[in-house]
Description:
With 373 residues, the chain is an alpha/beta fold. The protein has helices spanning 16-24, 47-55, 73-82, 102-105, 119-126, 130-143, 162-171, 197-223, 230-240, 305-308, 313-318, 323-352; strands at 2-6, 61-65, 87-92, 108-114, 149-156, 179-184, 228-229, 256-259, 265-266. It has twelve helices and nine strands. The protein has a nine-stranded mixed beta sheet with strand order 7-6-5-4-3-2-1-8-9. Strand 6, helix 8 (197-223) and strand 7 form a beta-alpha-beta unit. The chain is globular, with a radius of gyration of 20 Å. The structure holds iron/sulfur cluster (2 copies).
Amino acid sequence: MFFHVILTTECNLECRYCFGEALEDLDSDFSGFEVDYSLPRKISYDVALLDKFCRRDPDCVLIFYGGEPLLCLEEIKRIMDCVYAKHFIVQTNGLLLDRLAPEYVNRFSTILVSVDGDEALTDFYRGKGTFRRVVENLKFIRRNGFNGEIIARMTVMEQTDIYRQVRWLVENCEFPFSSVHWQLNAGFWNDFERRRFKEWSEESYNPGIRKLVDFWVSRMEREGVVLRLYPFLGIANSLLFGRRKELLRCGAGWINYAIQTDGHIIPCPSMWGMKDFYLGHVGNADPLRLKKVFVGEPCTKCDIFGLCGGRCLYANVTKRWSDDAYILVCKTVRNLIDTVDEAMPRIRKLVGRKRVRLEDFEFMKYNSCEIIP
Ligand code: SF4
Ligand code: SF4
């Protein structure tokens, strides 16, 4: 099982799609759910409880999460020293990666770092100077011996040209990324009316995905390299290995849960404080017997549910966007799946000729990449 360990709700950045949206969203209705806004700002339960909890699952993977988890350096060290986990992963904005000693950094199997594209775009969304500090820190941890996977984790919305920005990260960035995942900022806030999501998704994002899939497969053809562009990798994996009944691909609510700062367990980090979804407490729950929570309609009636998996449990239950607005998000999912599906004959030919290997399409699932953006 995978567990996001929410170490703190505090962050050292004020990104447009997170802090900025939260400010605009303060008074909005929360679909009738009761939310506990009084949770502790920092992890407040005994780390020994977390160890006892994890020891009941030999495959326990812990993902440090926040806020910004690296604001809790001492807590990270204590957990890595005292808690059993098969793997440790961190999802971070990268600004403080140089503050954690290499003996800890080098134990992460994966680091997901928030980078939205080139310097201008990343700094536009995340604040001036962010990109440079993150890139310097990534070079620093590589120099200090980190050899695990580094995934550029982009948040994508109207200012993003997906084709140009992903290509830039893998081809032009001075710290070239071979693993990239992106998530659409869509359906998470009560913001549809003030966005221009329709125009952007139809005129920029969906065509950009089609060009990007072609680029991805062309790179396999030219160089025998399968770039780890997670949305493509995840769908191609399902199609290659004949898995057409995927559950929610982020794993939320069935294989991937989150542990709040007070120790309560919830299906995903975004469901922070939503009391209707408290599934137990780290002090007494069995990690292998947690209640499962699945997406409902419209996903369960959707013809591509088996490949999409439902995109997002949080969006599905909170319905921050109306059904009509959410259809636009589903169109992006359909475009993504159709485009990868159309590329499969080219990919299968490359596998058949041993230009690329089937193993190149394998990855650690539920590692915090949601697959469906
Ligand atoms: S495409 Fe939309 S409706 Fe269909 S399964 Fe995915 S999120 Fe649900
Ligand atoms: S995709 Fe949705 S349900 Fe899954 S982890 Fe992200 S916010 Fe949670």
